[in-house]
Amino acid sequence: MLKLDQRVLKLLNKEQFLSGQKIADQLDVSRTAVWKAIQNLKRDGYNVESVTNKGYMLTQTSDRLNETLLSSMISDSDLFTDIIYHESVGSTQKVAFQNITEKHQPFIVVSNEQTEGRGRFNREWMSPKSSGLYMSAVLKPHINLNEIIKFNLFISLAIAQAIEKSFNLAAGIKWPNDIYIDNKKVCGFLTEVLSENSMIQTIICGIGINLYETDVVKELENATSIESELLKNDRMGIDIELFLKHLVQEIEHYYDLFLSAPFSAVKDDWISKSIIFGHQMRISEVNHTFIGKPVDITDDGFLIVADESGEIHKIISADIEF
Questions:
Q1: Are strands 82-86 and 107-111 parallel, antiparallel or unpaired?
Q2: Residue 2's pLDDT band (boundaries 50, 70, 90)?
Q3: d(CA 111, CA 88)
Q4: Are residues 260 and 254 in contact, defined by beta-carbon separation less than 8 angstroms?
Q5: Per-residue pLDDT tens digits for 33-84
Q6: Is 264 exposed, middle or buried (0-12, 13-18, 19+ CB in 10 A)?
Q7: Quick one: DSSP state of residue 114?
C-alpha cells in the first residue's frame, strides 16, 4: 500500500482546494495525520497552500528527488513493485545486490548521492549530492546468458527516448552503454547479471544521469547535463516528475520488447539514434586496440567495424572512443 504522504499527494490538485476533513474521510485517517502528511510533502519540496476553511491546494510539484515522488512514479507500474530510496549510499548497485534475495519482483534503488559510484571497467562515476539521477533497476527474467548483449541495446533506446520526450533534447547512443547530447556524455549505464547454468535470473542495471549543472560536470571536457543543455537552448527548469514518469514507462516498454521481440524489431530505431557510424574510432578490446569505423550492427548486437586496412571485425565487448 502507498504511504500516507503519497496517498494525500494523489488527492491534491492544482485546480481547487480540498478540505483536510474531506481528505481524512477519503483516506480513513485523522485530520492530524493529514496535517503531518502535508508537512512531509512540504519538506520534500512540494508547495502546498493552506487556507483556513478552504483546506489544501497543490501549487507546485517538487523539483528534486524525494521518496514520495519516487514512490509515486512506480505506483501505476506494471513492472516494478517497490522502490528503495537513500540520501547517500556507496553505490545503488551494491544496495540492489543486497536486496535481491528478499525481493522476488522487479524493484528500483535510487540515491541522492553515491560515494563509490562506478561505471564499466570499474571506472569511477562521479555522483555528487543532488546533481543527478543515480539508480539501479533490478529485473527478473529467465533468459539465456547470451541475450544480455541485446538488453543493453534496448535499454539505451529507453533512456534516449525518455530524455527526448521529457526535455525535447536529441539524445544519441554511443555503443554500448552511453547516452550523449550534442557530442557530450549525459548518461552511462552498467549492466550486471546473476546467472546459473547459462540462464540469467537477475539483471541489475545501474543508470547514472547528469541532471543538474555542477562544477563536477563542468570540469569534465566530454560531459554535460540536462540542465546545461536546456540553458544552451534558452530553456529553464527540469520537470523531474515528468522525466521519472517517462523513464519508467520507457524502461517498461523496451524491457517488454526485449523479452518478446528480436533486436531486428528496433534495429532501425537504434541505428537512427547511434552517433558512432561513419566516424574513425579507437576500439579497445581486452588484448587488442585498433582504429576503425563502425559500419553496422548485427541482429545479435555485435558491432561490425572496418579497420584502416579494410579488415572487418565483429565486436562484442570493447571500449570505443572518438
A1: parallel
A2: low
A3: 6
A4: no
A5: 999 999 999 988 899 999 999 999 999 888 778 888 888 888 889 999 999 9
A6: exposed
A7: B
User: CATH number, domain at 97?
Assistant: 3.30.930.10
Q: Are residues 97 and 226 in the same domain?
A: yes
pLDDT digits (tens, 9 = 90+) for 110-148: 999 999 877 766 677 667 787 899 999 999 999 999 999
Range of the domain at 284: 276-321
The C-alpha atoms of residue 87 and residue 67 are separated, in whole angstroms, by 9
Q: Cα(79)–Cα(184) distance, rounded to whole angstroms?
A: 31
Same domain, residue pair 144 and 221 = yes
Are residue 38 and residue 101 in the same domain, yes or no? Answer: no
How many other CB atoms sit within 10 Å of the CB of residue 148? 17
Residue where a domain stops, chosen among 255, 272, 289:
272
Question: What are 50's three cell numbers?
Answer: 493552506
Give the number of domains in the chain. Answer: 3
